[in-house]
């Protein structure tokens, strides 16, 4: 059979590309509209009562989390402390394997009280980046460590992937630095603390990593991930120590966001912007100088 003519293949490809792009944009617009509605509903109705944030009948309801079992050899874990903690408590499969994207949305919603819009948006983004279907496909936790998908350089609690490709490893010295950085009451973390920490990490990663990259979207992911420590965890040092050093939920812990519809992207982005826009190293020349210093030393070629 002869090959189809170039014009036919090219037209089909352009049409498929265009439809998929428009479909993606339409989904995003819908998600943002629903998010706006949930944001308004949250303003209008009272929050859940303290002690009743995790819905009745779900793991963690009333602060009773299923037993914590650290990962065994062969279990899949990843760069995200929140997903690892769910697997360590058996809320996701303890093996960390064969998780349906759709199911991830449901359990993230119940466990952390993020709004359904966020719980759809992030796993759907991850599925698209991995070229899988959100509706039908599954993943192992380690799959989401695909570099520069969501995982990126200059993270708060992981060394860069070039230094250690196993992104499930907790970088204890980095975690300890986060835990010492709080300037709020009781040493709790504030947005300014996280801007400072992220700035510091970006500069040191850029100096040390000859393949350092941080696109706009990854800067935004970096400050979003960091902002969960301020919102869902309320910046509380006491809880963050257990969560970040062991990827375990502290006894009786529950999300600090108590809105009925959960934490919407609209409300969350308020914190994310405070954190990202407060990173002075992005504008005072320090980050730029870090790259020049590295190449000036010639260490990339000399390594
Ligand atoms: C909804 C599905 C989620 C996916 C697919 C996901 C994915 C990821 C990935 C790939 C990273 C690594 C980013 C990096 O290189 O630093 C990450 C980091 C992180 N995530 Fe998640 N995540 C999810 C939900 C959550 C939730 C619900 C929370 C908090 C309640 C959370 C908190 C964090 C934190 C604190 C980090 C570490 C940030 C850092 O080291 O800079 N994530 N997540």
TrEMBL record:
The chain crosses the membrane at residues 14-41. Residues 64-270 form the Heme haloperoxidase family profile domain. Signal peptide: none annotated. It holds the Pfam family Peroxidase_2. InterPro entries: Chloroperoxidase (IPR000028), Chloroperoxidase-like_sf (IPR036851). Keywords: Heme, Iron, Membrane, Metal-binding, Oxidoreductase, Peroxidase, Transmembrane, Transmembrane helix. Its cofactor is heme b. GO terms for molecular function: metal ion binding; peroxidase activity. The keyword Metal-binding applies. PANTHER family: HEME HALOPEROXIDASE FAMILY PROFILE DOMAIN-CONTAINING PROTEIN, STERIGMATOCYSTIN BIOSYNTHESIS PEROXIDASE STCC-RELATED. Belongs to the chloroperoxidase family. This is Chloroperoxidase-like protein. It comes from Lentinus tigrinus ALCF2SS1-6.
